[in-house]
Amino acid sequence: MKYKLIASISKSLLFARFKQTLVAAIGVTFSITMFITLLSFMSGLNDLLDGLILNRTAHVRLYNEIKASDQQPVDLSEKYKGHHNFVSSVKPRDEKAEIHNSGAIIHALETDNRVTGVAPKIMAQVFYNVGSIDLTGVINGIDVDEETRLFFFKNYVVEGNYIDLKNTPNSIILGKGAAEKMMSAIGDIIQVTTSKGDRVQLKVVGYFQSGIQEIDKVQSYASISTTQKILGQPNSYITDIQVKLKNVLDAPMIAKEFQKKFNVEAVDIQTANSQFETGSSIRTLISYAVGITLLIVAGFGIYNILNMMIYEKMDSIAILKATGFSGKDVNNIFITIALSIGIFGGALGLLFGYGLCNIIEHIPFNTPSLPTVKTYPINYNPKFYMIGTVFSIITTYLAGYFPSRKASKIDPVIIIRGK
Amino acid sequence: MSKKILIANKICKSFHDPITVQVLNDISFSVDKGEFISVIGRSGCGKSTLLYILSTMDTDYSGELFIDGVLMRTKKEKELARVRNEKIGFVFQFHYLLNEFSVLQNVMLPGLKLNKYSKKEVEHRAYEKLKVLGIENEALKLPNQLSGGQKQRVAIARALINDPLIIMGDEPTGNLDKKNSEVVFQIFKELANSFQQTLLIVTHDNEFAARTNRIIEMEDGKIINM
Questions:
Q1: Straight-line distance from the first to the last Cα atom of chain B, in angstroms, rounded to the nearest whole number
Q2: Are A200 and A222 in contact (CB under 8 A)?
């Protein structure tokens, strides 16, 4: 009952200065709209850019590093035990880049319940032969189905059908840049030379475009069995095991565990791609800073309008106080005015923000480096809407708090005497 | 008739800005129920200042003030607001109606604030008060559609809504022409005679004062005649 009275007084004061109120509310609406749009767009863009690398990167990658043995023969000798041995110019063992016992490791990983999927991979250094010129390149031997399921391989095959890689023997999907240099069309036969000097002929079944030019100029894909054949290796030969985890944040911990357990090198996504994390977080920080600045500016608008209203309504405030309204009541009246401007303006802002995001999402955005993207990316994260709501309420509350405190301190005597 | 509604005991007040000037000096008097009192004096003799102290709006004074037997000095701002709401009705020189509200709502506001009756009852009571003052037909108009005399009558109705112990007026006829002043005086007279309403009216209209029950005359911050 009591609050209803205060609300009705607030409403009357609000509508008495409808235009000013509207301007204040539009300020809040505008800032919330921009806040939502900015964050949705920026975070959509972030996701897109991160996705370029992170979507296609294993959460944990197991491989065998070619390096010198930790224990040189002299260390094993009984005679020189306890001596300080210096061996210079140590060379790595003659060892293949293969992961030993890969079948058993893959089986163990597949039964681990923290793992979403496992995709084996072979990296093969080759030369693409173009006439008399050799271009350096890398052929990734992949399990086509798993690679598509876990790392969206299909999305990056821009021409040709990705599944042909599995179904056509001795086939290759060339990086778009490499294909352009070699001027090879789909269906052409190209020739590659392995690092051991073997020459192999492969049929081009598609083009692959990752969005990162340096990669597209070098990398190509073939099936695992084709790659094993190119390298002349048995079908147990695997150089990399890519693991996708259920929770990406566990990657560093799990990588360490696998390293110990399987006696291989393991690198987690956070270590391998730390620069992307930094970039995204700074972009996010900047968008929040701009968005919150907008809100604060809107808050000042409300502050000004309320201040003016209080000067205009000084007589009314005084008479309310003379007839028995306490300072607290007057305070509540102006806080209510500010909050209703904030809530009304904020709610409209959320709607407009959503609308603007929808519009932006339909603006064509074609760029050669991002084959899968046709329109501007937008992230509809409900978190932004929640932050927008909370901030619009907080800023308008503060914007109302100071003027209303002033109003509550108005002494009824001074104005009435002043007349 | 002997119940003391308001007792002022040695009330003093000084302004300190820019130099200390004593505006009220040892004011002591009391008001009985049903009295119709006028306070007169020249401009600047402190009569308005006294009224603001008596009305609890000004708390910066020394001395004691009892309203309905309760000492005001120790009360907090919120409690004083409650006292004004419940026990005092105000009529000022200027009507101070809220232009955003209809006449009826203006009258109802202090009643709703008191929260003693339901909204329906307050509305009913407001109509009754307006009827007593002969302006019930203007109830749904906005204040700025009324004449000066009508506005002042609305202000009186607003002062009456909570059945206050005492009505305080600061030059309530100061802004009105002869005819309307007479109307307002008759209303006060009627309230005092028929409803035993206690009234304390500050005025410089000696003719007005002469027709009240009791005159308190002030000069230089002192009561010289009462």
A1: 18
A2: no
Nearest to B100 among A13, A319, A416 (CB): A13
CA A390 vs CA A152, A343, B70: distances in Å: 37, 10, 47
CB contact under 8 A, A324 and B48: no
Spatial distance between the Cα atoms of B96 and A315, rounded to a whole number of angstroms: 7
CB-defined contacts A:B, below 8 A: 79
What 3-state class would DSSP assign to A182?
helix
Q: Which amino acid is residue A260, in one-letter code?
A: K
Identify the CATH assignment for B33-60+74-225 out of 3.60.21.10, 3.40.50.720, 3.40.50.1240, 3.40.50.300. Answer: 3.40.50.300
Residues of A in contact with B112 (CB under 8 A): 1, 5
Long-range contacts of B207-212 (CB under 8 A, 24+ apart): B208/B38, B208/B173, B208/B181, B209/B38, B209/B40, B211/B185, B212/B36, B212/B37, B212/B38
Give the relative orientation of helices A314-322 and A274-312 as an angle to the nearest 10 degrees.
70
Instruction: Provide the pLDDT for residue A28.
Output: 85
Residue A7's Cβ-count burial label (10 Å; 0-12, 13-18, 19+) is: middle
Report the mean per-residue pLDDT for chain A. Answer: 84
What separation in angstroms does the CA of A6 have from each of A362, B77, B86, B108, B112? Answer: 46, 18, 18, 13, 10
If DSSP codes are grouped into helix, strand and coil, which group holds residue A134? strand
Q: How far is CA B182 from CA B119, B134, B176, B193, in A?
A: 33, 14, 9, 16
Rounded-to-integer distance, Cα B36 and Cα B212, Å: 6
Q: Nearest residue of B to residue A6 by CA position?
A: B113
Q: Tell if the CB–CB gap between B109 and A315 is shorter than 8 Å.
A: no
Pick from B78, B90, B101: CB nearest A323: B90
Inter-chain CB proximity B115 and A324 less than 8 Å: no
Does the pLDDT of residue A340 top 80, yes or no?
yes
The pLDDT tens digits for B21-74 are 888 888 888 888 888 888 888 887 888 888 888 888 888 888 888 888 888 888
User: Taking a C-beta distance cutoff of 8 angstroms, is the pair A205, A172 a contact?
Assistant: yes
Answer yes or no: do A327 and B113 touch at CB < 8 A: no
A330 lies within 8 A of chain B by CB: no
pLDDT band at B1 (very low <50, low <70, confident <90, very high): very low
How many percent of chain B have pLDDT more than 70? 99
Structure tokens at B55: 């009305």
Cross-chain residue pair A416–B101, CB shorter than 8 Å? no
Which of the residues A15, A21, A323, A405 would you substitute to probe the B interface, choosing the one with the greatest number of B C-beta atoms within 10 Å?
A: A323
**Cβ B85–A324 below 8 Å, yes or no?**
yes
Which pLDDT score is estimated for A173? 92
CA distance A368 to A388: 35
Q: How far is Cα B155 from Cα B133, in angstroms, rounded to an integer? A: 10
Tokens read off for B216: 């308190």
The ranges assigned to domains in chain B are 33-60+74-225
Give the model confidence (pLDDT) of A298-338 as tens digits.
788 778 877 887 888 787 888 888 888 888 888 888 888 88
Position B92 pLDDT exceeds 90: no
* pLDDT the model gives residue A415: 62
